[in-house]
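BUG-572 | component: ligand-complex export | severity: low

The export step for zinc ion jobs runs without errors, but we want the raw record kept on the ticket for reference. Input record follows.
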Amino acid sequence: MARILITSAIPYINGIKHLGNLVGSQLPADLYARYQRGRGNEVLFLCATDEHGTPAELAAAKAGKPVAEYCAEMHEVQADIARRFGLSFDHFGRSSSAQNHRLTQHFAGRLAEAELIREVSEKQVYSNADGRFLPDRYIEGTCPNCGYDKARGDQCENCTKQLDPTDLIDPRSAISGSTDLEVRETKHLYLRQSAMKDQLDAWIDSKSDWPVLTTSIAKKWLHDGDGLQDRGITRDLDWGIPVKKGDQDWPGMEGKVFYVWFDAPIEYIACAKEWTDATGRGDADWERWWRTDKGAEDVRYVQFMGKDNVPFHTLSFPATILGSGEPWTLVDYIKSFNYLNYDGGQFSTSQGRGVFMDQALELLPADYWRWWLLSHAPESSDSEFTWENFQTSVNKDLADVLGNFVSRITKFCRSKFGEAVPEGGTPGDAETTLIANLTSRIRAYEGFMEAMEVRKSAQELRAIWVLGNEYLQSAAPWSNFKTDPDTAAMQVRLGLNLIRLYAVLSAPFIPDTSARMLAAMNTLDASWPDAVDAAVSALDAGHGFTVPEVLFAKITDEQREEWQARFAGVRS
Ligand SMILES: [Zn+2]
């Protein structure tokens, strides 16, 4: 039995995510986790909310709530939606947890001992009215280049000129609007990534099985220009993990917190301790996944993320882990995704454009969305959601191919033989051929799933469903029933067994439907079909079943048009 540690990039706390976010990390990670569990492997699947930073503070202020309260509420909202989408995390943690506080401070302490942290004095804008330093993008003013009056301290959105806050004419706080600003000197900690360049380079070189896209992004950051740069790991904010060296105070860093990019990936590890703490397990149970000196030598660690997250996961987080000098599990494989666009443009939270996770579930059950998103995952390039394509995919793949197969065979059996697997007849050449075809397709499906080729896996699964329909069409038990009822019985028996087989194979993609199919077949046997001939005779003659409700309802043209208009958003 293999042991596989799976993490999905952790979603930011300030709002409900759209379908593009979902398919960019959490959903394919769930597909892989469910598949590996289905194969009998031991899986630990972790995700969390990313809760620190200025955007969370501002979202809380806008909601009129203390930031801790806001984050606790939004975490529950995101956890609930994740559950309803069938995301099978072993634990859905929080980067603001006490466990992550301790572990982040621990890593900072180790890095300081290894002399991989240096102090830097910086000049930063302080707002007297807000009582805080302002990040560059929270300072607004008039652009010196084009005169746009809402230019940000880092860039003018109107003319795209890169700016420093001090370039702005009449600068003001984007939080309060106050113009009572001054430049103050402040000290920050920097992680000396430059000192770890060779070590990271050698580590990336050892990953010969990584996609070129992943290693080329890492190599670019390592070597372009002056090479890998040191990065600030602290901020002058209230909300975050207080800067400490392990459990010791850090002189000169009082009142400062770690920068969100430093503590967020450490939450992958802290989340495992949250899991053992929440479930009454001991530390040994999470350390055997994360410490190679405590049982994790044989763990394979796979991360899922959008392509924009690759630099953090190939360089910054490994720099933290390697720099600690401690035997933590390092990532073995990174599966990254391009972007999903929405109907000729991009998803937009501010313009209400596109479908968000909560809205999707108001329209249709999770499996409809899971199937479309995974079978159109943006792997080799960006992909696009259109309502026409969604309608076609649901109606053809799910309703016509899978749903119709299940409905047809169960209803026919009920009307001619009753609600039990019929007895009699002997399989012949057609059945031998079907089993051979199923075997080769199932082995191909396993290969694609193992390689995390999401789209190809979906295509293969659909082809496996099609084989059942084609068999039923040519075997035609409804014709045989009049002249040769034994042969019809054998064909129906095989068809009913295919429903169980399809439930097992389809569970990673459409878990709720899979569970309904197994329930209809009145079986708990979800064992993987290592031998297909045995798998298609698992349900013996006489085994009772029930005809399930329609598995997938078709999407009508009226629904499609209504939804298209409803989610078009307000273009500004
Ligand atoms: Zn401008």
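Assignee comment: Attached the raw record above. The first strand starts at residue 3 and ends at 8.
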